[in-house]
Structure formats: structure tokens, C-alpha cells
Amino acid sequence: QVQLVESGGGLVQAGGSLRLSCAASGLTFSRYTMGWFRQAPGKEREFVAAISWSEGRTTFKDSVQGRFAISRDNARNTVYLQMGSLKPEDTADYYCAAQTNHCSGNSCADRTRYKYWGQGTQVTVSS
């Protein structure tokens, strides 16, 4: 049974930082591209970042480029999202997801390509 469990969310002031973690089990983690998505109240779930399984290639949503970083530790079956210079508009539930394909650019943002999803962790950025 595949499980993705996010952690690290919380309340932070604008300009602050948070690091989200997603621990995976039940799959060969090193062979999965991992993505982070977010969903704000009343909005659709949107892509944030992804890291491929083979070369560790990363892709980001334009609005988080330069503020967020994604990394993975295949020995720990964990993917991280380091978020900095946080803004109130970053407030959302953050979800990690896994897919077996490589992705680049827009294909990383395609939710239908991701087979497994976590339950989410809430991030609130106060102004």
C-alpha cells in the first residue's frame, strides 16, 4: 500500500520560511518523479514544484521560482519543499504526489500524470 505523508506545515509570518517534508512508503521511491501541489480555499489545486527521479531535474511554478526549492533524499524516501520569502498568497494546503514518468515544464504540472497523493499539510502565511 502506497502512502505519502506530508508534514512541516504551520503558521508563519510573511517573509518567513518553512520546510515541508513528504515521506513515502510502499513504492520504489527512487523511480518516481515527485511533485508538490497546493490548493487555496475556493481555488483549484495548482502545481508548485517537481523533481524527477533520474537526474533530479527540478521544475517550478513561476511565482515560486527563486523562493522555493525542492529536493529529495532517496535513502530516506523523502521529498522536501523549502519555502522562503513566504507571502500571504502562498497560504494553502500543500500536497505531495508521485508519478513514474519523467516530466519537464508543463508536463510536471499535469495533475493527471500523478498516481499517488498525500493528504496534505496546511500552510498559513500571515501579513
The value of Rg in angstroms is 13 Å
Main sheet: strands, sense, barrel: 7 strands, mixed
Structural class: mainly beta
Give the overall pLDDT as a whole number: 95
Low-confidence stretches: none
Number of helices: 0
DSSP, total strands = 11
Can you offer a commentary on this structure?
With 127 residues, the chain is mainly β. Helices cover 0% and strands 48% of the residues. The protein contains no helices and eleven strands. The protein has strands at residues 3-7, 10-13, 18-25, 33-39, 46-51, 58-60, 68-73, 78-83, 92-99, 116-117, 121-126. Strands 2, 4, 5, 6, 9, 10 and 11 form a seven-stranded mixed beta sheet that branches. It has a four-stranded antiparallel beta sheet with strand order 1-3-8-7, with no helix packed on it. It is globular. The model has no long low-confidence stretch (mean pLDDT 95).
Helices and strands, with pairings:
Blueprint: E1 3-7, E2 10-13, E3 18-25, E4 33-39, E5 46-51, E6 58-60, E7 68-73, E8 78-83, E9 92-99, E10 116-117, E11 121-126
Parallel strand pairs: 2-11
Antiparallel strand pairs: 1-3, 3-8, 4-5, 4-9, 5-6, 7-8, 9-10, 9-11
